[in-house]
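Protocol step 4 of 6: structure prediction from sequence.
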Amino acid sequence: MSEGPPYDLWYWAEIPGRGEFVRLALEAGATAYRDRAREEGSETLARDLETRSGQRPFAPPYLVAGDLCLAQTANILLFLGERHGLAPADPGGRSFAHQLQLTVADIVAEAHDVHHPVAVGLYYRDQKAEAARAAKAFRDERIPKYLGYFEAVLSDRGPWLLGNDWSYPDLSLFQLVEGLDYAFPRRMKTLAGGLSRVLALRDRVREMPELADYLASERRIPFNEDGIFRHYPELDAE
């Protein structure tokens, strides 16, 4: 484990969500942290968020490191990548790692908007017709476009997104593919033949010794219908 006081990670206790991308980096990097809402409940998270000032986060996840409070998943991972060697040491490599993470963030947002295309404040049942239209476009156009991009990056570099060593965007691509497999299993099965490198990377991350204990533990929150990636069978198709 790293020396010094642990980080405090604040994210909702009931869902993997965007916080899981940060957890994977902390776990793979053997970095000490406390998952505060998992320990104390999401009500404590809501109270903590309300009382913050100065470097005030808009929403979870946020990471507290001493007097520093970092929000936004890609921003947190940029910080952890540089501080804990989870990204290339050269400026160009760090920048490209951040670019890849921002691209993951884009598709994650689109995946969420499939089941909430009208308004986040409405229930899925209140926007099912619009969600069906959004899901078709996401399945037919957006999933293959995004994953095809990552397939091309891996063909340029490989076996990892930035070459011979894993970095935090690899962990995030793993979580993305796992989420899409959960939400759209039929579509992902259809696309699998053109995503050999992406799926090989997913399997490679699954087998990382740095993550073995975490992935097998109860601390790894299962996907569910309260999170970003939701499996509604009526939204999936080949």
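Step 5 (inspection) to follow. Residues 7-83 form a domain with the Glutaredoxin fold (CATH 3.40.30.10).
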